[in-house]
């Protein structure tokens, strides 16, 4: 497919790998802060093709995975109400709460629906004035503009039966939390291109300077990721710590000003809990006072729900980059996509799901340093 195949070229990938090998003279640990990048890395075996000096650490880049357990339980409580039509993207339906998930609520008679846009939920509210329609508004900066637009549109239409259950999180404070953790091993970041396509890169230079780490904005195809790694390794070897944009076809320094204005009109920055990680200051958004009437958490009075994570699930350590999924004893045994203990096993951007889907079932490393075969760079299906 044009504009995709070009970024799967095995010959170009081999050249980038050769340059990374010739550049890296000592161990470096890089973190990708995007679940989509994690899946691409594992699918194409990029981490196993890199020289042994370069380690990739999977970060908390899966928005479904970092949605806290108490918010999942709030969603379950709201979705079970007889007057509610609960709308969500499909990933969230299998995420385990305390004892059940949204699929179970649907099976028990709840009106739970998969939608492809928050505006679909607005349309449902418009066509069903006798129902309370709730959209599960999760995600990083990427999904925030559409969710802001949905509540903005609902107010314009005068819909009193539409609301959002909000659990939005922001990437820069998460990077700050990672870098200030006492056990941090990260020496550079591959920043998420889709987040920066919305917000731009203005928040990153201060992080790079303060923590003396390179931050390279990258895309999601194999060549995008390899180019990001190449640039990050070059900076590390030279003792540099700058923000570089290796995804210029989608990212501009100012981002998308119209999207940013919509976010700032509807949402305000707040502290937010991250599943498996804890509370990170200024790491989320909530509805502003002007739109507070559309806040499902207050509308349905579920703010008092408190929860505890299952002890056997180590997804929090996976999300912090402290362990790989295969280091968890439950991985692939008691925890599978059919019987998940945590969101990292069922989300399409979860690291555990990537390792399970692409059969990375043990922590035994594959031989490093070989070139990428064409059939692996362009897998069928």
Kindly describe this structure:
- There is one protein chain.
- The chain is α/β, with parallel strands linked by helices and 381 residues long.
- It has a domain at 64-170 and 255-299: Rossmann fold.
- It is 38% helix and 17% strand.
- The protein is built from 17 helices and 11 strands.
- The strands form 2 sheets. It has a 6-stranded mixed beta sheet, with helices on both faces. A 5-stranded parallel beta sheet has the order 2-1-7-8-9.
- The radius of gyration is 21 Å and the shape is globular.
- The chain starts with 9 loop residues before the first helix and ends with a helix.
What is the topology?
Blueprint: H1 10-23, E1 28-32, H2 35-43, H3 46-49, E2 54-58, H4 63-66, H5 69-79, E3 84-88, H6 102-107, E4 111-114, H7 118-127, E5 132-139, H8 144-156, E6 162-169, H9 171-180, E7 188-192, H10 193-199, H11 204-211, E8 215-218, H12 222-238, E9 243-245, H13 257-266, E10 267-274, E11 278-287, H14 296-299, H15 315-319, H16 351-357, H17 374-377
Helix pairs in contact: 1-12, 2-16, 7-8, 8-13
Protein name: Hydrogenase formation protein HypD
Pfam families: HypD
Family: Belongs to the HypD family.
């Amino acid at each position: 497919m044009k504009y995709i195949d070009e970024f799967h070229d095995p010959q170009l990938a081999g050249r980038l790998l050769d340059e990374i090998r010739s550049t890296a003279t000592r161990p470096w640990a890089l973190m990708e802060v995007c679940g989509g990048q994690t899946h691409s890395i594992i699918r194409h075996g990029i981490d196993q093709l890199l020289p042994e000096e370069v380690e990739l650490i999977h970060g908390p880049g899966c928005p479904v995975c970092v949605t806290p357990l108490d918010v999942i339980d709030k969603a379950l409580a709201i979705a079970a109400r007889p007057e509610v039509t609960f709308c969500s993207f499909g990933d969230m339906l299998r995420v385990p709460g305390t004892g059940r998930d949204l699929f179970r609520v649907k099976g028990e008679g709840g009106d739970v629906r998969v939608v492809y846009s928050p505006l679909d939920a607005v349309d449902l509210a418009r066509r069903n004035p006798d129902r309370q329609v709730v959209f599960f508004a999760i995600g990083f900066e990427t999904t925030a503009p559409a969710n802001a637009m949905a509540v903005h549109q609902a107010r314009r239409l005068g819909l009193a039966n539409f609301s959002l259950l909000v659990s939005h999180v922001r990437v820069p404070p998460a990077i700050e939390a990672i870098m200030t953790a006492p056990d941090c091993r990260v020496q550079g970041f591959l920043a998420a291109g889709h987040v920066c396509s919305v917000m731009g890169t203005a928040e990153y230079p201060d992080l790079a300077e303060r923590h003396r780490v390179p931050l390279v904005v990258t895309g999601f195809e194999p060549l995008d990721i390899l180019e990001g790694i190449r640039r990050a390794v070059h900076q590390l070897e030279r003792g540099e710590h700058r923000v570089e944009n290796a995804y210029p076809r989608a990212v501009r320094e100012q981002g998308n000003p119209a999207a940013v204005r919509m976010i700032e009109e509807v949402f305000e920055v707040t502290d937010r809990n991250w599943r498996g990680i804890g509370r990170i200051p200024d790491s989320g958004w909530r509805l502003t006072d002007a739109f507070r009437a559309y806040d499902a958490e207050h509308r349905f009075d579920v703010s008092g729900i408190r929860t505890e994570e299952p002890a056997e699930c180590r997804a929090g350590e996976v999300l912090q980059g402290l362990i790989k999924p295969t280091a968890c004893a439950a991985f692939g045994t008691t925890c599978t996509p059919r019987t998940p203990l945590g969101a990292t096993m069922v989300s399409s951007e979860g690291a555990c799901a990537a390792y399970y889907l692409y059969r990375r079932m043990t922590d035994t490393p594959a031989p490093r340093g070989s070139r990428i075969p064409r059939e692996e760079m362009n897998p069928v299906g």
